[in-house]
Each structure stands twice: as C-alpha cells, then as structure tokens.
Design brief:
The complex is a heterotrimer.
Chain A (H helix, E strand, L loop, with lengths): L2 H11 L7 H37 L1 E2 L7 E2 L3 H7 L2 H31 L7 H13 L2 H11 L6 H8 L14 H26 L3 H9 L4 H29 L3 H6 L11 H11 L3 H29 L4
Antiparallel strand pairs in A: 1-2
Chain B lengths: L1 H29 L8 E7 L7 H14 L3 E7 L2 H13 L6 E5 H9 L16 H6 L1 E2 L2 E2 L2 E13 H7 L10 H11 L7 E4 L4 H10 L17 H11 L18 H7 L3 E7 L3 H4 L6 E4 L9 E10 L6 H13 L1 H10 L13 H5 L7 H5 L4 E2 L7 H16 L5 H16 L1
Parallel strand pairs in B: 1-2, 1-3, 7-8, 10-11
Antiparallel strand pairs in B: 3-10, 4-5, 6-8, 6-9, 6-10
Chain C lengths: L1 H5 L4 H40 L19 H9 L2 H32 L5 H10 L5 H14 L6 H5 L6 H13 L2 H9 L4 H12 L1 H17 L2 H6 L8 H6 L9 H35 L1
The chains are: A mainly alpha, B alpha/beta, C mainly alpha.
Chain lengths: ~300, ~425, ~290
C-alpha cells in the first residue's frame, strides 16, 4: 500500500544533498504514519473495488449468469453508441449551468452570513436545510413550483407578461429545471464550506487592510478572495466531480426524460447495472466517465498555482 | 510521548478494527447451523412489504408447526429495491435458499441457471396456466405464488350524475370513449378515464385490438402492424382530452389513486390490488371486465417463488414453497387479509373472496380470467419495457407521430432480441 | 476614522453614512429573509404533509384541515423505530469520528509534509471519488463476502473509515493556516505530531466542524450500500426502514413525510451544534 511512496523515494534522493539516511527514514516514517490510516482503508474499500469494476468492464455480465470475457468490446460498443455521447453531452450541460449558479449563490450567502447580523445562525440553518432534505421531497416541490400550467413560477412570470415555458415537461427546458433545483439544493453546501473558509481568515488581515484605507471592494478583492481561494478551489473541484456523477435529482425529477433530454451518465450506469442486466457495459461506461473526470481534476490540480493562494 | 502513543493506538485500532470484526462475524455465521437438527431456510421476498408482513409471518408459523425440522427466515425488501438487493446477492452467491420473482423477471433468472429444478410438485394443486408460466425449457423451476388481474374501476356516482349507463362487460373502446368524453369536465378537474401509455397497457390493448406482440417463433416483434397502430393510437390520443396530462400531475407518485379517491376520475384501468386502498372511499364504486375491441383481453400478473440453484437445502426450501403456495393455511390467510389471490386449482376455496364488498361485482375478477394475456417476456425485459414506454410517451406528448414512435419501438425491441 | 470624531462639522455626513449603512443592512436582511423563505419552503411542506392525515402529493395542502400526529404514531408502530435509529446513530457517529481522524492526519501530510509524488498521490485520493457507487457496490459486496463480513456492522462502517472528500476539505483548511505558526512551534522543538495536535487541529476547527456535519450526513443518508450488505432486521438503518414505508401500489405519504422529518432532525441539531465551533474558530484565530 505504501508503494507510491517508497518507490518514488529514491528518485528524490539523487538530486538532493546527501542527507543522513536515518533522518530520511524517520521522515518517511512520519509520512506513512500520517497517511496510512486513510490510505489503507481507501485502498481496500475503494481502490480494490475499482480494480474489480475494471475487470467487470471486460466482460458481459448480468450479475446472475457467469461472466463472459469480451475484452474491450464493451468500450467499443459504448463509443459507437449515440446514447453514450448524448449522456455525456447532457452531463456537461448540467455542469455548465449548475457550477456557476451554485458557486455564486453559495459565495453570496456565505459573505452575507459572515457579517455580524442578528439572527445569523437562524439564516445559516435555513440555508442549510435543503442540503439535508431528501431529493424525493425536493423534486416534488420543484415539479410543483415549475408546473407549466399551475405552478407558482409560471404564474409570477405570467403576471409580468411572460409566457412561462413547459419546464420539466419540455425537452428544451427540462435540464434548466434540473439545474435550477440542484443549485437551489446545494447552495447551502457551498455556503458552509466557504463560511468555514471565511472564518479561518485571521481578522488582523482585515484590520491591516482597513488601516491602509482599503475600500470594501478592495478588501474583498485583495483579502477575502485570495485567502478564500483554497476553499473555492475545493468547492470547484468537488462540485465538478459530483456534477459529473449527477443522478439522484434526475432520477426523481425527470427519470432522464422527456425525450432523453436529461439522461445523464450515471443514470445510464444505474439502469445498465441494476435494471438492464448489463453490468459489464455499466462498468465500462463508468471507466470512461472516470477518465474524463480524472483528466479534468488533474488539470485543475496542475493549474491551481495560478489562482489558489496558500498561506 | 504519551500523546504520540495515543495516536498510534488510535491508528492501529482503526486499521485493525476490521480484522477484529471479521473474526466476530466468522463465529456468528458458523452458529447458523447450530446444535439442533433444524434446517434454516432463508426466504427473500417483496410482496408482504408495507402491510402484509404479519400475514406472511402467520403462514410461516403454521408451516413451522407442521415441519418442526425447518426454520424459515423471511427477508423482506420493498419492491422498488428488491431486485437491486437480489441481483447483488446472486452476484455474490449469498442469495437466500428460496426467493420470490414476478413473472416478468422469471425468465431472466431461469435462463441464467440461477434456479434449481423442482421435482415431485403436486401439479393438481395449481391452476394449470399459472403453473406453466413458471416452467422453463420443459422443467418446473418455479411455483406460482399469487395472481391478480386488471379490471375497469368506475365511480358510480359520476355516472349517475351524468345520467349515463354504467360500463358493462360487453362494452367496446368506442362505448368507453363516448362515456369518457361525456364525463370529462376539465374546468372542474374531473377526468373521464385514466390509462397511461406504457408497456403494461400496450401489450394488453394490443391483444384487445387483435394483434400479437411477437411473431409466433418469438424471433421478432409483430406489433408494428395495423392492430399495433390502432392500440398505440388508443393509448396515445387520450391524454389532454379525457385523461390528465403530465402537467396536470400525471406521473406524480400515486396520482391516479388520489384522483380516483377524490371522486374526480370516472373510469380507471387498474389492478384488483386496489380493493384494499379503496375500501373506505366516501362514494360508491364498482368494477367490470375491461372493454375490448376486436376481442376481449385482460392483463394478468403473477408472482412466483423459486429455489436457488446454490441452496444447501433445496428439499426443505421446496417444502416451504409448496406450503406457501398451496396450503389451506395460506389460502385462509390470503382471503381473510384480502392479499393477492392464491394460485390454487380448487376455486371453490376462493368462495369467501366473492362474498366480500366492495366492489359488488367481484365476479368480474374471475370473468376477466377467461381471456387473459400475460406480459411478453424476454431476457432483456426491463430494457424492452423502457423502450416501449418511452416511445409511446413521446407520441402521447405530441413530440412524435404515432407511426414513427411505433416503428422506433419495434426497432429497439428487435435489437434486444439478437 | 479618528478625525470624524474630532470635527463636529462632519456630523451630518456621518449621519447620512449611518443611514446608508442601516438601509443596506435592512435590505440585506430582507433579501436574506426572502431567501430563507424559499429555502425553508420544502421542509415546511414536509412537516405540513406529515401532520395531514391521508395527505396526497399531487395537490399539495398548505393548511391541513384536521392536523394530527397519527403519522408519527404509525411510524413508531410499524417500524422497530428506536432500534433503527440507534443503528444509524452508532454507524454515523463511528464513521464521522473515524473520518475526522484519518482525514485530518492525511490532510496534514498533504499540506505540510514534503515527499516525492505528493501531488500524484493526492490525485489518487481524489480518484476514489470519481467512480460512481452504483458500479462499486457489486465488487465491494463480493469482497466483503470473502472477508465474511456480509450482514455485519463492520461491513456498514468499513467503506467509510476514510474519506478523500474529507482529506481534501481539511487539506485546504490546513493550507490556509499561516506557516509561521508551525514554524514557531518547530523552533520550540515540537515534532510533527505535536504541531498537528497542538497547532493545526485547534486552528482548523471550523473546517473540522463543517466536515463532521457533512460526514455524519452522508453516513446517515446512505442507502445503496446498506441495502445490499444488510439482510437482518436487527442491523437495519433509518433509510432502509423508511424505504419499507413505500408500498408497491400505494403509499401513505403522511407517514413517509413524518419519517423524512424525523431523519432530518438529528442532522439539523448537529449542524446547529457545529455552528458554535465554526464561530469560535474565528475568535481564536483572531486573537493570535
């Protein structure tokens, strides 16, 4: 399990000054001590099943019959299947709408609730409640609010002279409906993370900026934003990883419809595994998804230096 | 130093915990076949969930009293989650000795060799057609456990108010549509009928229109026919006129039940499992055999029970299943509870069922059985059902022509057959 | 700021400034209030539905005609309620404590220790978040069977001993702690373990509290894994218990909603408790 560490270690020794071996050993020991408690369980209970699912991806398997080896056929079939591309396209569409909305909303809520406001903790609790509420309930409420004929949203739009769209019953508007509901539900999640980040910014930084005569905007731009960037980085990376795996809200709001307009990758993975008896295809699809998410995340980890300021 | 030690211990504890726990469970599972000679039979099922757990428990109790050498452990899972759990268990070879399957999923399991062949079944005890439903390749690999059918429910008061004749067994689609149009009052939120454009309605109305779902040898679909088109049209053209649309709420969980219960639905195509939930409605309602078109056809559903091919106690498991599906104790429990009907050949035993009301016309439940149609079944069952439902839904929403939707559905199902 | 105090002529300007500040505060308050209403609405509806006997979902009731707590009584009667609450609580608390410990330690390693391949290993950690549970569940189940852990508490907890999500969240928090603080401690002769426990952990309390809430919540709500790995009723968790309230043909929605309310309460309480630490965190770091 320590393979990545111990194997890589000698490579580092060569260019560096000849360090004393005992100190190096102790240092390696410290790294292992701090990492093993998380790495061992992750390797056993996540990485190992991941390898298992890669094995499944090379087979045809309905979970009940014996597995049939098919090599890379499942991958070939998926790449040639227009449903795969539609699912990836819909997932990207979801992310493109969801991420800016939820981030802006969460940041605004965190900033507003980081002030010394009366009833602050009541507001914080209120904004966090949707995160806790089950998607089944949330989906029902949103479908009701966004009902094309009798929903509150279209009635408000109608009052100001706008003819509201068909929302989740219309292939064009179904994904925006899902995005809206998702962003609304997750704003509280982004808020608590950014709040924790804001709370960690030492007050003396603001005091110093105030002494220098910095305006509110300047303090936000030059103190808050840079010092919040580690938390923002976290939110962006995690929201992307989660966004690629969007499923629950689609499952309960639209079931992938209408006309497949909200069919997303993990919905297909779920259907293939547990409903269609095609676990091999599902695993192959999830490895395609994995490749995409891994690249996107690795790029973000790479370029974080450009905008993330660590203390 | 002491602090270092504490953390070290904590780390060791968290990583070693598993080893300790696995030891604990090893002793736990080995205690399964304990000192006594009783054999434990595990039974996985869904149909007792949410209301009939006690009824199943009383059948188990009666069985154990007759068979002191067998202990039955029931594992109940809600229907929506049942197959996820069952498939995972089969994949990991930890499935129960016996489990429940609905007819639609039976073939998939039989085909994969997951089921043990039953021997020495008392064939005379069961309704022959139901017993046949659980044969595969000439072998009896399952027993019918219960059945139910679909009839037309109607609100007597709405019919009386409109001065219309109540539906009768000789009605056709045309009669039904005329009544539905007269009964619909969208301003008041009253709808004439409810019959969703889904796979489960389609294969039935296809039979009513005189069509076939598959060709005789089962190698291709046969519903891309004039009868198929007529059936699809019948389903697709009602929403928005005599039937609520998605925007009216159709598709919300239990929408149709609530609509009927609130007195705002005149006619409803649904199963006899609704007798219980509708028992206390404040208005009068009754049932009748569904209207036919070219011919009569009623949908029948059946659940079966099977013995796992991997069971260590197949004989004991079969004994339990035979008791569960044919014993008098079971018949009494089911009839008393109004649980789904038992699959027994001796229909005289079902007499008490007919005496109960509502509905008054319980005979329709058995009349419907004279001309039944079972769901068409293939190994990619769920995928076929989804494809047909999706294409019909597109047509119902007006996004596709009926002809195109039907042709696309045919292509998609044909692709699954190869 | 000091000169405004000394010059009386500036006072009208100061009043206007105060007025503008007050208006801003009130409008902020109003906007937050509107937002809170929108946010609270579904929860409020859940509560209302739970006290409306025989409630349906298609035509939402906002004011129940004859409110009653029958649904809660049914909930207590039909489920081994306290048993499944206790199961969920034990599992969620264990998972949360384990994850806090393992994640904080790894976070320290990634933020403060120099070692080769650190970024690559970090991406490996993140990679564990990138394959959906739906495909992992079967291989993991088979693995648990070989460990002889099917249908045990251990199997419920094992996959949540560590969390890459937590490692990442806490790594960002540790990275925000000014390095001068631990350097000062190291000069005083402290080792890594001491720096971690005495300097870093107290300073990342807001993040720890936040993560505790999120970790608890994810364990509390987890459904798919308990569904497949548990078969004995005595190990049943709350989401599994609540799912049995859904019938194949009809469902008593007031009871389902009552279950939903009950399952939200513990997380809400934990969240409110954790808020105290989030705010305390500020006071402490402000003093330094």
């Amino acid at each position: 399990m320590t393979a990545p560490l111990t194997q890589a270690a000698p490579a580092r020794i060569a260019p560096g000054p000849p360090a004393r071996p005992r100190r190096r050993l102790r240092k390696a020991g410290t790294v292992v001590l701090f990492l093993a408690p998380s790495f061992v369980p992750l390797a056993m209970f996540t990485l190992a099943p991941m390898v298992g699912s890669l094995w499944v991806a090379l087979h045809d398997w309905n979970l009940i019959s014996p597995m049939q080896w098919v090599g890379l056929d499942n991958f070939g079939d998926l790449i040639g299947d227009s449903n795969t591309w539609r699912a990836f396209g819909n997932t990207l569409y979801y992310i493109a709408g969801y991420l800016p909305l939820v981030f802006a909303g969460g940041l605004a809520a965190a900033l507003a609730l980081n002030t010394a406001l009366r009833g602050r903790s009541v507001f914080r609790a209120a904004y966090f409640l949707p995160v806790v509420t089950s998607w089944v309930v949330v989906a029902l409420v949103w479908k009701w609010l966004l009902n094309p004929s009798s929903g509150v949203v279209n009635e408000v739009l109608g009052a100001i002279g706008i003819d509201g769209p068909g929302w989740w019953t219309d292939p064009v508007w179904a994904m925006p409906s899902v995005i809206l509901a998702s962003a609304w539900k997750d704003v509280g999640f982004v808020m608590v993370i950014l709040l924790a980040g804001l709370q960690s910014i030492p007050a003396e930084y603001y005091d110093a900026a105030r002494v220098d005569g910095a305006s509110t905007w300047k303090r936000f731009r030059h103190v808050t934003l840079p010092l919040l960037s580690p938390s923002s980085f976290f939110v962006v990376v995690i929201s992307l990883i989660n966004g690629f795996q969007v499923f629950d809200q689609v499952f309960v709001m639209t079931g992938g419809g209408p006309a497949g307009s909200t069919e997303v990758v993990v919905q297909q993975i779920y259907d293939l595994t547990f409903r269609y008896g095609r676990a091999g295809d599902a695993s192959a699809l999830s490895w395609l998804l994995f490749a995409v998410v891994l690249i996107v995340t690795a790029v973000q980890v790479r370029i974080q230096r450009r905008w993330v300021t660590y203390a | 130093m002491r602090r270092q030690l504490t953390i070290g211990v904590a780390v060791a504890a968290s990583t070693l915990m598993l080893a300790a726990c696995s030891q604990g469970s090893a002793t736990r599972s080995s205690s399964g076949d304990d000192e006594s000679d009783r054999v434990t039979v595990r039974y996985m099922e869904f149909s007792s969930n949410n209301g009939n757990e006690d009824n199943l428990a009383s059948i188990v109790e009666a069985f154990e009293a007759d068979n002191p050498d067998i202990e039955v452990i029931v594992e109940t899972t809600p229907y929506d989650d049942y197959f996820t759990r069952l498939q995972t268990a089969v994949a990991g070879n930890t499935e129960a000795d016996a489990f429940e399957l609905n007819y639609e999923n039976f073939v998939t399991y039989a085909e994969s060799g997951a089921l043990a062949e039953l021997s020495g079944v008392d064939e005379g005890a069961y309704t022959p057609s139901l017993l046949e439903a659980f044969q595969y390749d000439g072998a009896q690999v399952g027993l019918p456990e219960s059945f139910s059918d679909v009839v037309l429910f109607y609100n007597k008061e709405l019919f009386a108010e409109a001065g219309l004749d109540e539906p009768s067994a000789d009605w056709t689609w045309e009669d039904q549509l005329a009544a539905a149009e007269a009964l619909t009052d969208t301003d008041e939120g009253v709808f004439g009928l409810y019959q969703p454009a889904t796979f489960h309605e389609f294969y039935k109305v296809l039979a009513q229109a005189g069509g076939e779902f598959f060709t005789a040898d089962g190698s291709a679909v046969a519903f891309d026919s004039p009868a198929g088109l007529e059936a699809a049209r019948w389903l697709v053209e009602k929403p928005g006129t005599v039937m609520p649309t998605e925007a009216d709420g159709a598709g919300t969980p239990d929408f149709d039940t609530e609509l009927f219960r609130s007195g705002n639905l005149a006619m409803w195509h649904t199963g006899i499992w609704m007798f219980g939930p509708l028992a206390d409605t404040p208005f009068e309602w009754d049932i009748v055999v569904e209207p036919g078109n070219a011919t009569q056809a009623s949908a029948m559903f059946t659940n079966g029970v099977v013995v796992s091919a991997g069971s260590d106690h197949p004989e004991e498991a079969q004994r339990w299943l035979e008791y569960l599906t044919s014993s008098d104790a079971m018949v009494d429990t089911r009839l008393e509870a109004g649980w789904e009907l038992p699959p027994i050949a001796d229909t005289d035993k079902l007499a008490p069922y007919l005496d109960q009301t509502p509905p008054a016309n319980r005979d329709a439940v058995f009349e419907a059985l004279e001309e039944t149609v079972l769901p068409p079944v293939i190994s990619s069952q769920q995928e076929m059902q989804d494809a047909v439902t999706e294409e019909l839904g597109e047509a119902a929403a007006g996004r596709k022509d009926v002809e195109d939707a039907l042709a696309d559905a045919a292509d998609r199902v044909n692709a699954l057959l190869n | 700021m000091p000169d405004t105090e000394t010059t009386p002529r500036r006072r009208p300007g100061r009043d206007r400034h105060l007025l503008a500040l007050r208006i801003r505060k009130i409008s902020l308050f109003a906007m937050l209030g509107l937002g809170a209403f929108v946010m609270l609405f579904p929860f409020a509806w859940t509560v209302i539905t739970s006290i409306t006997p025989g409630a349906g979902l298609s035509s939402p009731t906002l004011i129940p005609e004859e409110p009653g707590f029958d649904a809660y009584r049914t909930l207590l009667d039909t489920l081994p309620f306290w048993r499944i609450m206790a199961n969920s609580l034990v599992i969620a608390v264990a998972a949360t404590l384990l994850q806090l410990l393992t994640s904080a330690m790894a976070a320290y390693a990634f933020a403060r220790l120099e070692f080769p391949g650190r970024n690559a290993l970090f991406v490996v950690y993140l990679a564990t978040l990138m394959v959906p549970m739906q495909v992992l569940v079967v291989p993991l189940f088979i693995q648990m069977r070989t460990f002889n852990l099917v249908d045990t508490y251990a199997a419920l907890i094992a996959p949540s001993i560590a969390s890459a999500f937590g490692v990442f969240l806490l790594r960002q928090a540790v990275a925000q702690v000014p390095r001068e603080l631990d350097e000062a401690a190291i000069i005083d002769g402290a080792g890594h373990i001491r720096v971690f426990t005495m300097v870093i952990l107290p300073l990342i309390r807001p993040a720890l509290a936040t993560f505790a809430v999120l970790a608890f919540m994810s364990s509390w709500n987890s459904f798919l894994w308990p569904l497949v790995i548990i078969r004995s009723p005595e190990f049943m968790t709350l989401p599994l218990g609540l799912s049995t309230l859904h019938g194949q043909f009809t469902t008593a929605w007031d009871v389902v909603m009552a279950g939903s309310v009950v399952s939200i309460i513990p997380i809400a309480v934990l969240y409110l408790a954790a808020q105290k630490y989030v705010i305390q965190g500020v006071a402490r770091s402000g003093l330094k």
